[in-house]
Amino acid sequence: DAKTTQPNSMESNEEEPVHLPCNHSTISGTDYIHWYRQLPSQGPEYVIHGLTSNVNNRMASLAIAEDRKSSTLILHRATLRDAAVYYCILRVSSGNTGKLIFGQGTTLQVKP
Amino acid sequence: NAGVTQTPKFRILKIGQSMTLQCAQDMNHNYMYWYRQDPGMGLKLIYYSVGAGITDKGEVPNGYNVSRSTTEDFPLRLELAAPSQTSVYFCASRLQGESYEQYFGPGTRLTVT
C-alpha cells in the first residue's frame, strides 16, 4: 500500500486558516486521497476525499497537486473544536474493499 | 439513526480470558470494519466484512476472530487475551458506493492485565 507522510504536529490560532500538508510520492493513478480527523477520545470522522481535482465541502477544502504526489487539507477558519489528529490516507480503488491504512497523522493544536 | 454502536465502552480482562466486543449499525451498510488503536498511534485494520457471511483479514488479525451473520452486527472475538491486545477498538461501517466514507463507533477501551 502506498504511504503518506505528514508532520507530527502543527499549531494554529483560532479563526485563522490552517494548511495541513501530506506527501504521497508513491501514489498510483487510481488511489483516492482521504482525510479523516479524530477528536480526543472519539472515533475518527470523515472530512473530505478526492482523486485529481480540488474539492470543497462544508468542513474543509482539499487541494491536490497536479502530479498528485502531495495534497493539502485547508481549514478556512480554525476553531477550538478543530483541535484533533488529522489523518491523510490513500485508499486503493482496486478490489472495492474500501480498506483504509492509517498513518500517525498530524496533531493540530488551536490556540485561542 | 443511532449510527454505529459499540459495547462495552470499557473492559478489563485477565490474561487468558475471552470476550466478544459488540458492534452494530442501523444504516444498512454492507461493509464493516474492526480497527485497533494503540496509544499515540494511528488505527490498524484487524478484520473487515463486505457483507453478511463474508469476512477477511486486515493488517493485524492474529488473536482475533469475527463473524457476520447479519447485515447489522459484526462482533469481534478475543479468545485468549494477552497484554499486547490492550488497546482501543473501533468499529466502522460504510455503504457500497463512490464515497467510501466510513462511519466510526465511539470505541471500546480494553485493558488486559
Structure description:
The complex is a heterodimer of chains A (112) and B (113). The model of chain A has no long low-confidence stretch (mean pLDDT 91). Chain A has 112 residues and is mainly beta. Chain A contains no helices and nine strands. In chain A, strand 6 (61-64) and strand 7 (70-75) form a beta hairpin. In chain A, strands 1-9-8-3-4 form a five-stranded mixed sheet, with no helix packed on it. Chain A has a four-stranded antiparallel sheet with strand order 2-7-6-5, with no helix packed on it. With 113 residues, chain B is an all-beta fold. The mean pLDDT of chain B is 94. Classes of the chains: A mainly beta (112), B mainly beta (113). The interface between A and B is medium-sized, with 21 and 28 residues.
Question: Helices and strands in order, then pairings?
Answer:
The complex is a heterodimer of chains A (112) and B (113).
Chain A: E1 9-13, E2 18-23, E3 32-38, E4 45-50, E5 55-56, E6 61-64, E7 70-75, E8 84-91, E9 106-111
Parallel strand pairs in A: 1-9
Antiparallel strand pairs in A: 2-7, 3-4, 3-8, 5-6, 6-7, 8-9
Chain B: E1 4-7, E2 10-13, E3 19-25, E4 31-37, E5 43-51, E6 54-57, E7 64-66, E8 76-78, E9 87-94, E10 103-104, E11 108-112
Parallel strand pairs in B: 2-11
Antiparallel strand pairs in B: 1-3, 3-8, 4-5, 4-9, 5-6, 7-8, 9-10, 9-11
Name its key features:
heterodimer, A: 112 residues, mainly beta, 5-stranded mixed beta sheet, globular, B: 113 residues, 7-stranded mixed beta sheet, 4-stranded antiparallel beta sheet, 50% strand
